Amino acid sequence: MGLRRLLYGPYERQLERLLRTSGQTPRHIGVILDGNRRWARQSGASTADGHRRGADKISEVLEWSEEAGVEVVTLWMLSTDNLERDPGELDALLDIICAAVETLAADGRWRLQHVGSADLLPGPAADRIAAAVATTASATGLHVNVAVGYGGRHEIADAVRAYLRGAIDSGMSMEAAAESFSVEHIAEHLYTKGQPDPDLVIRTSGEQRLSGFLMWQSAHSEFYFCDAYWPDFRHVDFLRALRAFSQRERRHGR
Predict the structure, then answer these.
(1) Catalytic one among 82, 145, 197, 199?
(2) What single-letter DSSP state applies at residue 252?
(3) pTM of whole model > 0.90?
(4) The one catalytic residue among 34, 197, 199, 232
(5) Max CA pair span of the chain
(6) Where are the beta strands (DSSP E) in the chain?
(7) What is the C-alpha separation between 166 and 161, in angstroms, rounded?
(8) Mean pLDDT, to the nearest integer, of 18-30?
(9) Is position 36 annotated as part of the catalytic site?
(10) Are 16 and 211 contacting, i.e. CB atoms less than 8 angstroms apart?
(11) Angle of helix 87-107 versus helix 123-134 axis, rounded to 10
(12) What local confidence, expressed as pLDDT, does residue 9 receive?
């Protein structure tokens, strides 16, 4: 470990200098925290230990993001598909996730926001996350979206339902609401409404797909796929992702 740190130290400083001169810093980074279970199998550890190691990595990445000048980080911690896992594993995973959110909240530096379908979560887990998030309302640091019970299709469906309910409550007929419906109405009712869309989405573990993560918001995002499992994600991997972003010519669909 000492030799590796000795070798990577100068390289990390070189990357940091390059990034400072590029002037290309993403305002919002989305992170798909993938590979905890595979890390556990490879390490001979239990699945729960893999998830705990992954949870321990989160604060580091948030610190790196703050140092880089990022404003918003969205962490995909549990998908709606994950809710179909074996109940024993799911209960343990939810407990680890809730504890991780509570730890982030107790740190006091970051403002947390839950993005996802709270009604799909078991009541005790939803309550723990809501209570932790509430304690960070006055925090002024990095804005951190904790995506727990999150699915991109669910988010879009929720946005459409929210728009229709609001339109009908205001006295519009269903026909008039449908006629006036636009893409802007979806954006106004997303879980992340009011936030910049992610400039960069990072996925660990070598998988090269989004799996429904921020489907609407990532239309013009840059993607970076890292081979490292989430518990092994290093500062140099993070800097490489930022370097790749800084080298992209962003066209925003034009």
Answers:
(1) 82
(2) T
(3) yes
(4) 34
(5) 69
(6) 28-32, 72-79, 111-115, 143-150, 200-203, 222-225
(7) 9
(8) 87
(9) no
(10) no
(11) 10
(12) 79
